[in-house]
Design goal:
eight-stranded mixed beta sheet; 44 strands; hydrolase; Peptidase_S9_cat
Length: 720
């Protein structure tokens, strides 16, 4: 397909230092994206969708459009004078050894390690009790494909550690293959399982394992709808074609997400079945009794409930049923329904995320988005509060029952992730692994503020930057948000953000409604007909940063991915004056059709769908980024990012939004789309691609804020 070139748009980049910008002109010519008359009718209202043809990810026309857009985008990015300098600094800072916490399986202790710039982490092991320096490479995903675009996914060891089942993702796709390895010989054994999606892997002894998947869809596997999840059992030595459906085969009762797991003692199979990303039914099956049926613990999806642990037939269950911040209850497996539940760790004002290890239960609480951990015994007695290394995010308080020690991680926005060894009996922590990185946390500060949203709700936000920041309203700032699906944004170190802050950048993260920082009520306050609360919270965060002179609209960028891409898209179309740069990544941008692709229908708890009611349709259309791009408006400089293999949020969202913006943009700000090839929603992305992407994102952002060279270099010149 040939593309018509529209007249050049002149991009005025104000470059130089804060004393007085100079002007540099770069011309951009966008591909002329054709419009096709496509109309849908919702409750008597006609809605045009002229770029519907871009939804066909298998067509030559779409491929040609992707190629043409990338040529324009990379042509622009190559003209940014400090792009390579950013890439080099990102590479230099990224290049340090990263080691994960050790864990024991069979006769070996395993751990993941990345030497620095390896595309994928490598799994190592050594004989338990021997010197860790004798560790050998056990499984190296970097050997799967030279460019690192085949990544390691789920891993699961059999009960005695003699076998490993692991999944691989090709090009970032959610569709996986599963292979089984003999851990002693490192040889692959048995059948390679194909077409597995959204699945855990859980062994029943050494005989086989449970996994979940969908029937392969007709049409495009990257965009066709998938909504009937099933649990299968794979018996070792038999082909996948003989795998039996264990749960989910009833057509009249569809479940979009089903997870199956075996308890540590191998006595029970636990199944969680959901129709959406929130709320699940819960079932249990006694594996010690051949032919035993599934027993229903919960037959509705009104809560998020799972089995934390069992001691014999005594079940420990974590739930937000009648407890929005979650609690732990106990019940006998023979009569496990809620009317028999007994509170074990009651609900508190803080959100609970419990785990188990070494005969203890660790209650990890979120207190204004930072961690507090309490240790209990199996009788419910509080043993102690775990003394953490500082204020931040602690995780990983889990190991097998017989272990005497565990390893947990600790991080915050200025502290690279470190691993601590914890003695379960004494409560003593000792630093186990501290990364040697070319970054000095002492030069930076991170503090939490509370600001007021449009309706008066107080919203927390953590702001991180160099110490001694001059509050003159001219600091380049990234405001990052998510606000959905009960997901909490807690403090964590990022190499990319460290490079941003080295340049004098401010990094601000508000904990918006729709997230999980304050439990189910906080989540629900940002869903469906209350989704505008999330955008209002984000807008108020930007206004706070501007009012308090951290930055100004000329130096503010808004960024988010997936549901956060929706956040950015809605914010930039509602308040285009508020920011200089918009960075929507793999965003949900067509709110009228999102539920028709892959597993999108499962997001309806958060969004609702345009088919639910006239009121819901009108509400969605009222904020859907794709449907709110208007003629005659100057939108901020926009760099949309997506992957051609994203089968979570299909790239058509980004394609159509880019075409709409490019056709209607007024003024001089560029609208570009960067489409990564052989890349998906983000998981498993090779380090090399990640570094290139951040160099482009930061380069685009700073260049459109008026910088001809990196701010750090300008500041050095001023100091000299």
């Amino acid at each position: 397909m040939k593309f018509t070139i529209v007249p050049a748009i002149l991009i005025l980049a104000f470059v130089g230092c804060k004393e007085g910008p100079k002007k540099e002109v770069i011309s951009v010519t966008y591909p002329q994206t054709k419009k096709v008359d496509t109309v849908d009718t919702y409750f008597g209202v006609e809605v045009n969708d002229p770029y519907r043809w871009l939804e066909d990810d298998r067509s030559e026309e779409t491929a040609a459009w992707v190629k043409a857009e990338n040529e324009v985008t990379y042509g622009y990015l190559e003209k940014i004078p400090f792009r390579e300098e950013l890439k080099q600094r990102l590479s230099d800072l990224w290049n340090y050894e990263k080691v994960g916490p050790p864990f024991k399986e069979g006769d070996y202790t395993y751990f993941y390690k990345n030497d620095g710039l390896q595309n994928q982490y490598v799994l190592y092991r050594y004989k338990t009790g021997e010197d860790p320096s004798s560790a050998e490479v056990f499984l190296d995903p970097n050997t799967f494909k030279e460019d690192g675009t085949i990544s390691l996914g789920e891993t699961s060891f059999s009960k005695d550690g003699s076998k490993l089942a692991y999944s691989i993702s090709e090009g970032g796709s959610d569709w996986r293959k599963v292979l089984v390895m003999n851990t002693e010989t490192k040889e692959l054994v048995g059948d390679t399982l194909k077409d597995i999606k959204f699945s855990g892997l859980s062994w029943k002894g050494e005989d086989g394992f449970y996994y979940s998947s969908y029937d392969k869809p007709k049409g495009s596997e990257l965009s066709a709808k998938t909504d009937q999840h099933k649990v299968y059992y794979h018996k070792m030595g038999s082909p996948q074609s003989e795998d039996k459906v264990i749960f989910g085969a009833t057509p009249e009762e569809k479940h979009r997400y089903i997870n199956a797991s075996v308890t540590e003692d191998n006595n029970y199979l636990v199944v969680r079945a959901s129709t959406s990303t929130s709320g699940n039914k819960l079932f249990i099956k006694d594996l010690t009794k051949p032919g035993a049926p599934f027993v229903t613990i919960l037959g509705d999806t009104d809560s998020d409930t799972s089995i934390l642990e069992n001691v014999g037939s005594k079940l420990y269950i974590v739930t937000n049923r009648n407890a929005p911040n979650k609690k732990v209850v106990t019940v006998n497996a023979n009569s496990p329904t809620p009317d028999n539940w007994v509170d074990f760790i009651p609900e508190t004002e803080n959100v609970l995320s419990p785990s188990t290890g070494g005969g203890s239960i660790f209650a990890n609480y979120m207190v204004d988005a930072v961690s507090k951990v309490l240790q209990y015994d199996y009788d419910g007695k509080l043993i102690r509060e775990v003394k953490l290394p500082g204020v931040g995010s602690a995780g990983g308080f889990g190991t097998k029952k017989e272990e005497k020690e565990l390893y947990y991680s600790f991080t915050n926005y200025v502290t690279p992730g470190s691993i601590y060894k914890y003695d379960i009996a004494s409560g003593d922590s000792e630093l186990f692994i501290k990364p040697e990185i070319d970054f000095n946390p002492e030069n930076f500060e991170s503090h939490q503020v509370f600001y007021t949203s449009k309706d008066g709700t107080k919203i927390p936000m953590i702001i991180t930057h160099k110490k001694g920041l001059k509050m003159d309203g001219k600091n380049p700032t990234i405001l990052y948000g998510y606000g959905g699906f009960n997901i909490s944004l807690t403090p964590g170190f990022s190499i990319a953000n460290a490079v941003w802050m080295e340049q004098g950048g401010v990094y601000a993260v508000p904990n918006l409604r729709g997230g999980g920082e304050y439990g189910k009520k906080w989540h629900d306050a940002g869903t469906q007909m209350k989704k505008q609360n999330v955008f209002d919270d984000f807008i108020a965060a930007a206004e706070y940063l501007i009012k308090n002179n951290y930055t100004s609209s000329d130096y503010l960028a808004v960024r988010g991915g997936s549901n956060g891409g929706l956040l950015v898209g809605a914010t930039m179309t509602q308040r285009p004056d508020l920011m200089k740069v918009a960075l929507p990544a793999v965003g949900v941008l067509d709110m009228l059709r999102y539920h028709t692709f892959t597993a999108g229908a499962g997001w309806a708890y958060d969004y609702g769908t345009a088919e639910d009611s006239k009121e819901m349709f009108e509400y969605l259309k009222g904020y859907s980024p794709l449907h709110n791009v208007k003629e005659g408006v100057e939108y901020p400089a926009t760099l949309i990012t997506t992957g051609d293999h994203d089968d979570r949020v299909v790239p058509a969202h980004s394609f159509k939004f880019a075409a709409e913006l490019q056709s209607k943009q007024t003024g001089n700000n560029p609208v570009l789309i960067r489409i990564e090839t052989d890349a998906g929603h983000g998981a498993g992305t090779p380090v090399s691609k990640t570094i290139e992407q951040y160099a482009d994102i930061f380069g685009f952002t700073l260049f459109n804020m008026g910088y001809k060279e990196l701010p750090e270099n300008i500041n050095k010149e001023i100091k000299q």
